[in-house]
């Protein structure tokens, strides 16, 4: 049987951005997949719901993400089956357990020189407290109130650090994530204005349908208008 190696990412998705707010965790990601520099698919989700109140999102190679999801779903099914077979054992796959499992998976793959080319975000609830963690393709992990993968680490994190506070309401958290996704759309040539939001609380886990950001104000900003005006004048263009 031939060896199968992903030597470099080919069909990729860009940033996933997440934050903890007062009452839950919110994630955001666009739905664009790029084939190199070409936009291949405009409506492909990169966030999934796993087990009970656990979210998993990913940037990077999409085929590797599909393989990770199939492994995680098999693990969640095994946990559920074991729990059903035992009267005394009510186990479900928690967010922190999934985070630790994926850390081991990513580390094992990179140790065999055949990594999954993904950065993963795990969100959920752990002991009635919100949980948010990230794992990179080397198996390095981070648990934090604010996370961003891909170009979001450079473009979205400064905005998150400036405006985040622990008592953010759900509406404020959503507005902040949408601002981050707009910045990524303006600055990251692999990002799209078509996004999804995902929310996990004590009681629910929801992934929204894809929708378009209202990004017209960015192009109508005074600085952009001056730049366009210079095209017809002698402003250095």
From TrEMBL:
Top-level taxon in the UniProt lineage: Eukaryota
GO biological process entries: proteolysis involved in protein catabolic process
This protein's GO CC annotations: cytoplasm; nucleus; proteasome core complex, beta-subunit complex
Classification via PANTHER family: METALLOPROTEASE TLDD, PROTEASOME SUBUNIT BETA
Function, in words: Non-catalytic component of the proteasome.
Name this protein carries in UniProt: Proteasome subunit beta
InterPro entries linked to this entry: Ntn_hydrolases_N, Proteasome_beta4, Proteasome_bsu_CS, Proteasome_sua/b, Proteasome_suB-type
Localization of this protein: Cytoplasm; Nucleus
Family that this chain belongs to: Belongs to the peptidase T1B family.
Species in which this protein is naturally found: Cylindrotheca closterium
Keywords from the UniProt entry: Cytoplasm, Nucleus, Proteasome
Membrane recorded as keyword: no
């Amino acid at each position: 049987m031939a060896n199968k190696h992903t030597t470099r990412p080919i069909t990729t998705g860009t940033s996933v951005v997440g934050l903890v707010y007062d009452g839950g965790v919110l994630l955001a990601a666009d739905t664009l997949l790029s084939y190199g520099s070409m936009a291949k698919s405009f409506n492909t989700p990169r966030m999934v719901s796993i087990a009970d109140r656990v979210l998993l999102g990913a940037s990077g190679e999409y085929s590797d993400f599909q393989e990770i999801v199939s492994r995680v779903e098999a693990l969640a099914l095994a946990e559920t089956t074991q729990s059903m077979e035992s009267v005394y054992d009510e186990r479900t796959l928690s967010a922190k357990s999934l985070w630790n499992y994926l850390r081991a998976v990513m580390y094992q793959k990179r140790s065999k020189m055949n990594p999954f080319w993904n950065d993963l975000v795990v969100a959920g609830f752990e002991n009635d407290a919100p949980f948010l963690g990230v794992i990179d393709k080397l198996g390095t992990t981070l648990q934090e109130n604010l996370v961003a993968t891909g170009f979001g680490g450079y473009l979205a994190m400064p905005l998150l650090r400036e405006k985040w506070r622990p008592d953010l309401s759900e509406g404020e958290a959503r507005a902040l994530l949408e601002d981050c996704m707009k910045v990524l759309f303006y600055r990251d040539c692999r990002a799209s204005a078509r996004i999804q939001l995902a929310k996990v609380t004590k009681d629910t886990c929801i992934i929204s349908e894809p929708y378009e950001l209202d990004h017209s104000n960015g192009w109508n900003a005074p600085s952009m208008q001056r730049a366009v005006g210079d095209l017809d004048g002698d402003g250095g263009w």
